[in-house]
Amino acid sequence: MINEKMPLAMFMELRKEVLNQWPTGKEVDLDEAISYQKNIHPKKRFSDRLLQAKNEQETLVQPRAGVALPNQHLELLRYLQNEGGADLLPTTIDSYTRHNRYKEAQAGIEESVRTGKSLLNGFPAVNHGVMICRDIIEKLNVPLQVRHGTPDARLLAEITLAGGFTSFEGGGISYNIPYGKNNSLEKTITDWQFVDRLIGYYEEQGVRINREPFGPLTGTLVPPCISHSVAILESLLAAQQGCKCITVGYGQCGNQIQDIAAIKTLSNLTQRYLRRFGYDDVLVTTVFHQWMGGFPQDEAKAYGVIAWGAATAVLAGATKVIVKSPHEAFGVPTAEANANGLKTTKQLTVMLKDQIAIESPAIRNEMEIIERETVSILEAVLALGENDFGKSAVRGFEAGLIDVPFAPAQCNANKALPARDNHGAVRFLDFGNLPFDEELKKFHQEKLRERAAFERRDVSFQMVIDDIYAVSKGHLVGRPR
Ligand code: 8ZB
């Protein structure tokens, strides 16, 4: 890890090694890639579209999508653009590529060609290489982002940015903690500093690339202060390497007051911390993820969950919303189901556009709680690493000062436990080592006692289990029934 913008010579030296990881690495010519990027029309540049949406107080809709073969991938994206009305398009990367297993991805491509159907769960961009990415992007009319889940995304970033993508998701924390058991946090942060430095290089040459830390983390009852702390640390890490356009994210919890307060505080706090460390020239936008936990199997019920997320995203004033499909309970959706999720969402974002100025004492109270919690965590974490963002993150996780619920990673304490209060807001049932003062702790304990009294049972781990399954069973709060 490094605690400054990586020196150019060091970056260029590292690049040679990265580009050697797979033959398509040789296709990347950074200077040529920069002139190619400069010719991309502004309406197809992610950062321009986000800035426009932010100024016009519009909430953009974006799906997830990716299949193995270029032609089928293009056809899928075209359908989501034309039929689904997607404002922004993704390219979701397959699992082999996410694990740098390019040989297996190659076998998956060949089997897909042989059988005519996609045998990978996403688009293997590294294997396809620079020119195939460009060819797809040129045939579409909206900006494209790489969405993945890759702990070491250095080669993927080199190829896709040279390939014309104008936004890149992930981060050294958010693509480690929820995504694997044994990845060293120090290594993933170091590898992501390379990715951020690559984007910093594009920025130095006048090419704006949007960076999006992955907000929802484990997608399971993650309290806003936890995902906010990670998003802000990753924003600082990215800004340090020269990123100038950052979209911070949050996964819907389901209580609308808490969700609106979460998006508002996420944007405020991220800007406040960036300014504090001298990164005043970073454009911050927000992304709201529709419910990331278990979904109802019934499609009509799933549309209900999707619509609630859409309504909340727009009322919270999120810059964009990542959309679920009615097939969520079963896995990767068909193109049609995916487009239906988009259409449901867009109906809401457009209908509710003129009501976004929602404010209330309840939202303000909730904002104050989230702010106090997030500041408590970040101050403790930053002090532990002497304001070295990478060191702070590593030590903060070690000490359990940040603790992501239900994470597989061994470097995560897994002591803090969330549960819903009587109104469905996500609170802490167990604080683990979170650095909250007594007043904050009392707030959470009171909220859970209120629920326990209503349900005539004790506050217990059973509530956590009940809450995890509640939405898929048609409820928000997991009450005894
Ligand atoms: C962390 C993100 C999980 C979500 C969706 C899952 C789930 C994964 C694809 C995809 C469409 C793909 N997802 N891969 N959606 N096409 N290739 O990401 O269904 O909702």
Mean pLDDT figure: 98
Shape: globular
Taking the alpha carbons of the first and last residues, their distance comes to 50 Å
Strand content: 5-15%
Low-pLDDT stretches: none
Q: Please outline the major beta sheet.
A: 4 strands, parallel
Outline the fold blueprint.
Layout: H1 8-19, H2 30-38, H3 46-55, E1 60-62, H4 70-82, E2 89-92, H5 95-98, H6 102-115, H7 125-128, H8 130-138, E3 144-147, H9 154-162, E4 167-169, H10 185-204, E5 210-212, H11 224-240, E6 245-251, H12 256-276, E7 283-289, H13 299-316, E8 320-322, H14 335-351, H15 361-384, H16 389-398, E9 417-420, E10 426-430, H17 438-455, H18 461-470
Parallel strand pairs: 1-8, 2-3, 3-4, 4-5, 6-7, 7-8
Antiparallel strand pairs: 9-10
Ligand 8ZB binds at residues 64-66, 92, 121-122, 324, 328, 331-333.
